[in-house]
Design a protein that fits this description.
Elements: H1 2-40, H2 45-61, H3 65-78, H4 85-104
Helix pairs in contact: 1-2, 1-3, 1-4, 2-3
């Protein structure tokens, strides 16, 4: 009976770890996306870091990923930066991979 309980506990721990890793990966990817967007808008240094931090905070306050995407699109257009939805999504996908690699190291 103990072996079954140990396996069940190990599976629960793995699930919790995987969910935590997923959360951290998404947050890091959104920070990187914020820095990417900030660069497109001509922001650098502390201004770029602040923009990225606000983006991650917006992500944490909203459960809707579409909200973050819309914020970036709106901010880019407000700075007269024309990027397609596909480009933003492709960049986020690329940054998700980078964030995952950074966490696994």
């Amino acid at each position: 009976m103990t072996t079954f309980n140990d396996k069940e506990k190990a599976a629960e721990n793995k699930y919790a770890h995987d969910k935590e890793l997923e959360f951290i990966t998404h947050a890091r990817a959104h920070k990187l996306l914020g820095l990417w967007a900030a660069g497109k808008m001509g922001l650098s240094g502390a201004s770029a870091e602040e923009y990225a931090a606000r983006l991650v905070k917006a992500e944490l306050e909203k459960t809707d990923l579409h909200h973050v995407f819309e914020k970036i699109r709106h901010d880019l257009l407000a700075h007269d930066v024309h990027v397609t939805d596909h480009e933003i999504k492709a960049e986020l996908n690329r940054l998700e991979h980078i964030a995952r690699e950074q966490l696994v190291k």
